[in-house]
Amino acid sequence: MKAIELQDGLFYVGVNDRQKTLFENMLPLPKGVSYNSYLIVDEKVLLVDTVEAPFTDQLISKIQSVLGDRVVDYLLVNHMEPDHSSGIRALKAIYPDVQIIGNVKTKGMLEGYYGLNENIYEVKDGDVLSLGSRELTFYMTPMVHWPEVMMAYDAKNEILFSADAFGCFGTLDGAVKDVDLHYKHYLSEMHRYYVNIVGKYGGPVQSTLKKFAGAPLKMICSTHGPVWTKHIPEIVGIYDKLSKYEPKPGVVIAYGTMYGNTAEMAEAVARGAHEITKDVQLFDVSRADQSEVLSQIFQYKGLILGAPTYCNSIFPPLKTLMDKIEIRTIKNRVFAGFGSFTWAGVMPKKLKCFAESMKWEEPSIVEVKQSMNNITEEQLMELGRELARKAID
Ligand code: FEO
Question: Which of 70, 122, 282, 337 falls between 20 and 30 A from 212, CA-CA?
Fold first, then answer.
């Protein structure tokens, strides 16, 4: 398979994974995913990251389509997560003398994952490597998305090799640059990717954005999704907003239901909220893709959660979603809740504890025994109205 030339001396040698159904074995991939790898051909040859192990034949075929019998001198490992590093063994089998560039944390992971401890070139923040006409400067960007993550900047050509940052789900169907693709098709998957993969690490993402704030950028080469050129300001803006946990006006209602009674309650809450704003989304957490629900929750200011009490706890599908929200420490939200029960209810207590752990204001909560009546329906509609007013403020 042939490489794709991005500019003189720089080639895209990544691959598309159209087979995997769940990324990290939990996040659905309806549009697949790409593992991006880049080859710089200068006086020295450097490969930026590998691909996931099952795709190394394609990677090597693409490298050889450019290099022929010439060898790869350096492998830059910006990120050790196995979707990018599990191809290292296969690469070393073809290029045994390749020198691996990483930092002190990369070194430990290379040994731990692959038993590699030789021919590793350790770099620190600000170190520079000359490849001939190009120079790469290395920057440590820990926790975007693992502790060893680093990026490389080619100042002369204004290119950032950004590891997972600015990445998104979705395969690259015949082209790789944003200007050659319908790039807007990737933006919803960029949000879902950010929220579910990097969402916990808003602080480190902000530090990274500040680090590169003054750097001119003509090209961002991420490990997933399109190569960004013309639309760099827009995608940097998306990362800036998400990593500041800055929400848009609007309400997300996520509910669990066993027999439909709590679904009727959710409908009443949504009707109330809709009297105030059109930006209302309703999700049944047993049916919806929770990674998408989480992506929407991350983007909107208002959140309303509701479910039945189950075994003296929260209905499990909603509990799972609440755990996902909690570990991402989503900030600056207005919150309300509702619950149902048949003989003993715990939802008000559980929802209040949840708000407390999120450091959100104490929520308004409506709890209904068995099924909704005219009185509780109005209470639920008012709950929706009240929260929606705060969510568009
Ligand atoms: Fe695409 Fe954090 O690995």
Answer: 122
pLDDT of 130-150, one tens digit each?
999 999 999 999 999 899 999
Q: How far is CA 17 from CA 55, 164, 183, in A?
A: 8, 16, 19
Give me the sign of the Cα torsion angle 106, 108, 113, 116.
Answer: positive
Q: How far is the CA of 29 from the centre of ligand 1 (A)?
A: 14
The whole-angstrom separation of Cα 387 and Cα 392 is 9
223 Cβ closer than 6 Å to some ligand 1 atom: yes
> Ligand 1 atom closest to Cα of 167?
1
Among 62, 40, 218, smallest CA distance to 132 is for 40
| pLDDT tens per residue, range 290-326 | 999 999 999 999 999 999 999 999 999 999 999 999 9
DSSP 3-state assignment of 27? strand
Cβ of 224 closer than 6 Å to ligand 1, yes or no, is yes
SS3 367: strand
Print burial letters for 372-382: b (CB count within 10 Å at least 16), e (below 16). Answer: beeebbebbbb
* Selection from 160, 58, 47, 128 nearest residue 95 by Cα: 47
Query: With a 6 A CB cut-off, is 92 part of the ligand 1 pocket?
Result: no
d(CA 84, CA 3): 18
Amino acid at 49: D
